[in-house]
Design brief:
Layout (H helix, E strand, L loop, with lengths): L3 E8 L4 E6 L2 E5 L1 E4 L3 E5 L6 E7 L2 E4 L2 E4 L1
Parallel strand pairs: 4-8
Antiparallel strand pairs: 1-2, 1-6, 2-3, 5-6, 7-8
């Protein structure tokens, strides 16, 4: 399966975690990550994001699992 870049960060306005995968943004309260990630500092907001590569993102009610 092809792997795509994902990243997530805290969304202060909504008080949730914002997960970005395949040009879509998902807001969630819980996240479970089963792949390797790295931190990345941006010069503009969001300052710190956690990013990695994933082949699958499962979306359930208020929870996202990244595999």
């Amino acid at each position: 399966m092809k792997k795509y870049r994902f990243f997530y960060h805290y969304n202060k306005i909504h008080k949730k975690i914002s997960v970005h995968y395949r040009d879509k943004c998902y807001l969630t309260d819980n996240i479970k990550v089963s792949v390797e990630t790295e931190s990345h500092w941006n010069k503009q907001q969001p300052r710190l994001v956690i990013r990695g590569f994933s082949s699958n993102v499962s979306i359930e009610e208020n929870s996202i699992t990244i595999q």
